[in-house]
Amino acid sequence: xxxxxxxxxxxxxxxxxxxxxxxxxxxxxxxxxxxxxxxxxxxxxxxxxxxxxxxxxxxxxxxxxxxxxxxxxxxxxxxxxxxxxxxxxxxxxxxxxxxxxxxxxxxxxxxxxxxxxxxxxxxxxxxxxxxxxxxxxxxxxxxxxxxxxxxxxxxxxxxxxxxxxxxxxxxxxxxxxxxxxxxxxxxxxxxxxxxxxxxxxxxxxxxxxxxxxxxxxxxxxxxxxxxxxxxxxxxxxxxxxxxxxxxxxxxxxxxxxxxxxxxxxxxxxxxxxxxxxxxxxxxxxxxxxxxxxxxxxxxxx
Length: 301
Fold this sequence. Notes:
There is one protein chain. By secondary structure, this protein is of the alpha/beta class. The protein has one domain (about 10-300): NADP-dependent oxidoreductase domain (TIM Barrel, Alpha-Beta Barrel). Helices cover about 40% and strands about 10% of the residues. The protein contains 13 helices and eight strands. It has helices at about 10-15, 25, 40-55, 65-75, 95-110, 120-125, 130-145, 160-165, 180-185, 185-195, 225-235, 240-250, 265-275; strands at about 20, 55-60, 80-85, 115-120, 150-155, 170-175, 195-200, 255-260. It has an eight-stranded parallel β-barrel. Helix 8 links the parallel strand 5 (about 150-155) and strand 6 (about 170-175). Helix 8 runs parallel beside helix 10. It is globular. The relative contact order is 0.14.
């Protein structure tokens, strides 16, 4: 099935900062995901709608289960979608195995050249072999196997130091209404000033903001009161949770792309409608942040 080309109408222009995360296409991912891995028929419907909306970027990874293979089967060699993928972790087999897996990513995605390749584990670059790994990434770019190279990093991995050391083309960083640490520290702005393209992920914190107290995992139950307070503040400002979560990141000039994950077309249509709509005004954005590291770090869940 050939998907329609993305539109470029004025409506679609409001969505030019939205990228589609695909981990749910290959794994049953996310604490708010009650549907499990998205079935291929639904993936096709989601991609069809994304194309119609003018969404260009798809974000995936080598260790997102079968996501790369699913995307390859769904979009084939059609070049209108641009694909970001990520390396496997640097294991005992070393750098050669990590770089060798990139060719498999290209094969699965049915791409002659990957639009962007990120080091998935920033810890791999902070290790003794970091410089050698990055040199291998640069070689892939010089050869044309990938167009851009970058890094996916968490706050505690010091994204700014990584940007200063390696000068990546782009970085994927957790930034959200609930997790404002990169903004408060000033590091997000400093990375942008280095000429790095910034992609914000986890803008919904895996859907944490949308969960009711009884839906919270036991590890996060202690945060129910604070989350309820945040929701009341948003509601009192006349905004929906989606409007607040998207509005916080969408108009930031230091963020080039916002990666969102969905499990069905209804969720994507809702995101598109909110992105095209008015932004919340009068909210105390800084006051809506969570301070508890456990609540804003999905790795700990």
